[in-house]
Input
Amino acid sequence: MTKSILAKALLATFILCATTVQAQIFKKKNKQTEKAAEKPKKGKIQSYDKVITKDAKTDKGLFDVHVVDDKHYYEIPDSLFNKEMLMVSRIAKTASGIGFGGGKINTQVLRWEKKGKKVLLRVVSYGIVAADSLPVHEAVVNSNFEPVLQAFDIKAYRKNDSTASTVIQVDDFLVKDVNAIGMPEFYRKRYKVSRLDEKRSYIDSLRSYPLNLEARHVKTYFAKEPPSNGTLGSISIEINNSMILLPEEPMKRRYFDRRVGWFARGQVDYGLDVQESKTIRFLDRWRLEVKDEDKDKYAAGELVEPKKQIVYYVDRATPEQWVPFIKKGIEDWQVAFEEAGFKNAIIAKDPPTKEEDPEWSPEDVRYSVVRYLASPIPNANGPHVSDPRSGEILESDINWYHNVMTLLRNWFFVQTAAINPDARGVAFKEEVMGRLIRFVSSHEVGHTLGLPHNMGSSVAYPVDSLRSATFTQKYGTAPSIMDYARFNYIAQPGDEGVALMPDIGIYDKHAIRWGYKPILDKNAEEEKPILDRWILAHAGDPNYRFGHQQIGDVVDPSSQTEDLGDDAIKAGAYGIANLKRIVPKLVEWTAEDGKDYDDLKTLYGQVLSQYNRYMGHVSNNIGGVYEHHKTYEQEGAVYTHVAKEHQKNCMRFLQEELFQTPKWMLDKELFSKIEYSGSIERVRSMQERTLNNMLRLGKMARLIENETMNGSKAYSLLEMMRDLRRGIWSELRSGKTIDTYRRNLQKVHIDRLAYLMTAANQKKKPSFGGYQKSTVVNTSQSDIRSVARAELNTLKREIKSATGRTSDSMSKYHLQDAVERIDMILDPQ
Output
């Protein structure tokens, strides 16, 4: 082959190879171009069937909810844009140590808006308002700009002949760390949460119903101090977000009055005809309205059925034997609604079976449900969801935890076993437990109707009336089932036929009438004089009084939890007499072959807890101030200090019943079965608890203020401190041997005086809607520290004088030590 022929052959081979390679390159590029064409550009709106494919799993409802592979979509009808919705966030399932499932963590009004190629989720505030017809409305709008909670890219549109909708993807919103729908800030701080772990966070379920959407998502957070499973360094919780369409026409409001207890909400209204912005408050209540065709009957005083009844379904999971009692507790409120002009206003129903209605769900906002939860939590609660524009309650789910029965057993035993054979034991007969369940059911339903606890109710009845069968069978043990009046611990053996618990009472009927009775043809403002007259008709009658629940420092001793009757001293004495009857019988009443002594230990602990309650009821009268809300047309004071003589009697009671060692509770046989040590420490801690309560800064400051205003008519701080010292240290004058229990108590007294010498100033605390009352105390500049120093010096002199007169070695060592302790307090150097 010649060189030229060889060269041509090589050239042809090269061209062939090059052509083949080029063809392959072009083929690869074409495939990449095709793939690029298939994948939409970021932010590009696709055709509906490209996003919501034939493989989509769809749940139809308020929004259609779609799941395609691992992506989650909301299809929002265009008719629902700019409509207001209420989002309620709850912890559905929680890590051990973080509250309990069902607890509400956030409530917000939201509005979906379309803005170009985006859908915006805005937070709507009703905190400040003004009518849109007023010039000030524009200023209110400008100072109340609605923040954007989340912005979503529009993925697709769908248009039919009569409807149109917009599709967005919600994975980032529900899986990423959006504070408004995630773990509350106080939990983050408490457990030192640093950030969300998205790899361990996911959407569990999305469900859609005619009026609401339910989203459940699991969030996992890195935490330095998790409450449980500490080795993981993280916390996982399941959160449920309910998004509820608010009614097109808000319900007519009814304005709040603090003389009648009610859950209420407030707005700052800049449109009122006053010279300042003013907060207006209105009630949370169900929309009970008279049917148009029944208005004449109603006006004539005839009972009518409302347009829409309040209906509660009892969870399918509820044990069958308890269902009738829960239902009775719900329908017990019918007598109260009859006072408001309605019959059959509230009813209980069984939910449909799965065969009857497979779509029925307790998460559907159209249904209010008593939900039975298999939980060790000994509790029940009755939250509700309401429209912030009007207060209309939209739905309520009562959470009923299985172990509430344990709580009922403990209360009923310790408060009634001395007179009630049915309460003697660790397991009650079905009808006895059923009656207790009915009582709790009624109480919780009251909350869902809008009524808070009325802790001022139980003091309405004279103590001795609670020993009367005729009185208690007619009136129950308190005028309101919304008090924590529990069970009749005052009744004594021989008080046959006495009622043991409250029913729907005088106050409950009054409150429901005041909150629910329709006032036809009048607006909310025009109703107020009529509502005021309904209150004034019973002014001064303790059966109609509302007393706010208090947390922390109990200022008003006539509005306490767990108390009965109008005299804490007499009621406590009756209660202690019954505890003294129970303790010797504890072993017998808890005995069962083959069983250990855990129940014995539990019920002995209940005896001590009940005893502590009596001490608290009495000690809270010292430095106490009664609160009886009034308006200008009513005579008399709103705030009145507890009478001096009663405070002195309370001091005497505490010295005799608590500070003189309550040896009746020190049962050797019982201790030999439940513990190897602890009886001495138990007495010391009980005494310390009450002593520290008596010497709270707020109580001492109120004693000073009372003396300043009322002089010798007041129980002064000096007089109280002197009475306390003389009782606790009575051996200094009597020369008696000081036993172990008293020595411990006396050290507690010295330690509390030491605390008063260095205690920080007490600032005003948040009121939490009236639940917390706090007294501001500048400790270093008030008389408290001066009095504490004087008490220490006086005590030191008295101890030195008495030390030489005692022959008991341990008493002498204790007194010598006490002097040394006081010296170190007065002169730390």
About this structure: Residues 251-566 form a domain with the Collagenase (Catalytic Domain) fold (CATH 3.40.390). The two ends are 118 Å apart (CA to CA). DSSP finds 25 helices and 23 strands in the chain. Residues 428 and 535 are 42 Å apart (CA to CA).
